[in-house]
Recover the amino acids of this structure.
């Protein structure tokens, strides 16, 4: 059992290192590098049950009408979106689900990092 746990920890560590290394620079266009990060999290209802199928939309604050990313929550209510990162990038994360009130939260993502945002949506009356 100890060997299996050590093996899993080593695999998870290697996965994290490779993900962090690959998230730092992403080629765009003519050799220009784009620095990225991830906004992710989980969406729950007011009874703390996950909400699969909830729609997550991410907008840059400076251009609220321009969607920068979107995701649909998986069966565990989880989502993750890779976005341009840095102190100049601030985002509004909007979560919507049928028969639930919409929720929004502001967030900033830094290069190579993951921001975790959890949402609790209330049922619409």
């Amino acid at each position: 059992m100890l060997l299996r746990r050590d093996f899993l920890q080593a695999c998870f560590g290697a996965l994290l290192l490779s993900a962090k290394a690959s998230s730092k620079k992403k080629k765009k266009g003519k050799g220009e590098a784009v620095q990225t990060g991830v906004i992710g999290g989980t969406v729950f209802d007011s009874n703390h049950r996950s909400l699969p199928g909830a729609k997550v939309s991410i907008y840059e604050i400076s251009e609220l009408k321009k969607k920068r990313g979107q995701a649909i929550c998986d069966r565990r209510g989880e989502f993750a979106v890779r976005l341009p990162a840095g102190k100049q990038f601030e985002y509004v994360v909007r979560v919507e689900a049928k028969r639930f009130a919409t929720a929004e939260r502001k967030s900033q993502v830094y290069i190579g990092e993951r921001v975790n945002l959890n949402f609790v949506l209330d049922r619409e009356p």
User: Anything to note?
Assistant: Residues 2-24 form the longest helix (23 residues).
